[in-house]
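<given_protein>
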Amino acid sequence: MPMLLDRERGRFLVEQDERRWSLAAADARDGVLQRRAFRYYLEQYGDRASDFDAAEAVYGELVGNCVHHAPGRIQVEFSWDDRTLVVIDACERLRSWPFSPDDTHAEATHHAYALINAFTARIHLTHDAGGGTRASVLLPVARAGR
């Protein structure tokens, strides 16, 4: 079910169904505002034994780092098929994250990276075919039985 919203800062589109959740936002700050909506989605379709707190924290850290280090357009995607959360920034800044030489928040980014690694065991950073950097992590969630 798509939801298109206008904000003073930009526009974003959230799409979701029982298989996937996605967000396309003109401003990364709008992604931060959708953190609780993402968690609600996971709780709606996820197994109760899933670690929803960890999944929400990982979402918040990845999208929050886009706000601080790669402001601008982002995409967020989650699929139950592989339980992978993907955050794509538009400006290639996250490629060198968390140890970017011009990062004025190096200590904070290091802690965010450590937190995400603790919950997911790995952050995979690649160049996105559409431009920007693709950060993907396996979330500690499982889909509820049908």
